[in-house]
TrEMBL record:
Residues 1-99 form the Protein kinase domain. InterPro entries: Atg1-like, Kinase-like_dom_sf, Prot_kinase_dom. It comes from Paramecium tetraurelia. SUPFAM superfamilies: Protein kinase-like (PK-like). The keyword NADP does not apply. The keyword Protein transport does not apply. Pfam families: Pkinase. Keywords: ATP-binding, Kinase, Nucleotide-binding, Transferase. One of its GO terms (biological process) is regulation of autophagy. Coiled coil: none annotated. This is Protein kinase domain-containing protein. GO terms for molecular function: ATP binding; protein serine/threonine kinase activity.
Amino acid sequence: MLKQLFKKGILMIQQLSYLNGLHHLHKNKVIHRDIKLANIGVKLIAEEEQRLLQNNALSVFYNAQYKLLDFGLAKQLMNEELTNTYVGTELNMAPEILK
């Protein structure tokens, strides 16, 4: 199934959607601080959801909406403020952060 997603370019559409969301956050000086697969949602309209369930029609993902979820650790920055707290899910953190 993953091979089919790559072939259809769906993963690129998803990535661009996430990047647009991050760009919007950063433009408004908001940092998410817990980006991981579990915090990314997919919204399908009801008809597309039925097509996926009945026919395994991966093309429904072209028209899906992809959204960042769980802003519980998000922070609004003021001016040129930096953050120095380490938050997030350890399994998804960069190794240099865990040192």
